[in-house]
Amino acid sequence: VLNIKGRVLPSTLGVVRLCARLADGSVVEGESTISSSKQPIKQVFFDPPYAAPLGEVITAIREADAIVLGPGSLYTSILPNFLVDRIAREVAASQAIKMYVCNVMTQPGETDNMTAADHVEALLENAGARVCDCVIVNDEPPSKLLEAYAVEGQIPVTPDVERITEMG
Fold first, then answer.
1. 38 and 28 in contact (C-beta within 8 Å)?
2. Separation CA 46–CA 43 (nearest Å)
3. How confident is the model at residue 107 (pLDDT cuts 50, 70, 90)?
4. pTM (predicted TM-score)
């Protein structure tokens, strides 16, 4: 679609289950179960907790000129990569520019009512490392599609840029 040349690599070939700890302390397992939970997600983790990184991924991170995180499902697509051993540390240590592209709309069951700064905060806390240098945030909601998104339970992500700036 974007006419970009490159490769798509899995972060790990390990067999793990994605789990989430919710605001009420309960734990849910599996991507679809996590996305359909009614409680806010506080943390994602793997069961079993250890997943070895693919060597090619570590090499790609070390050789990258830019690392773009997102857009995508924050808790079930972006953050799981940082649960793989060494990935967050390697991204944080990389000299590449690290950009997080925040979603334009919230995702029902996953990022309900979260602002752009809430997204960044969750990214940094769950990764456990400084994995982005800058954040790309949409400051104009897609007005022609707002009604269609609303039917799906999605609202625009509030671009609270000042709060992101305060995070450094």
1. no
2. 10
3. very high
4. 0.91
Phi, psi of 117 (to 5 degrees): -65, -35
Q: What integer pLDDT is reported at residue 20 of this predicted model?
A: 97
* Residue 117 CA: distances (Å) to CA of 32, 38, 70: 25, 21, 15
Sheet of 66-69: strand order equals 66-69, 97-101, 134-136
Question: What pLDDT, on a 0 to 100 scale, did the predictor assign at position 132?
Answer: 96
Decide if 66 contacts 57 (C-beta within 8 A).
Answer: no
Asked if 51 and 12 count as a contact pair (C-beta separation under 8 A), the reply is yes
- What is each CA distance from 30 to 41, 44, 49, 161, in whole angstroms? 13, 10, 14, 32
Q: Around Cβ 167, how many Cβ atoms within 10 Å?
A: 12
Task: Kindly report the length of the chain.
Answer: 168
pLDDT band at 37 (very low <50, low <70, confident <90, very high): confident
8-state DSSP, 137: -
